Description:
This protein has about 35 residues and is mostly helical. The protein is built from one helix and no strands. It has one helix at about 5-35. The chain is rod-shaped.
Amino acid sequence: xxxxxxxxxxxxxxxxxxxxxxxxxxxxxxxxxxxGS
Length: 37
């Protein structure tokens, strides 16, 4: 019934997941850099 809203919500959900994974990846990279030095 509301395809645009559904698309928008799924788009937001994808962005939230991407942001979360990006933050986690940055944490892991920083940890490795700290361990290396």
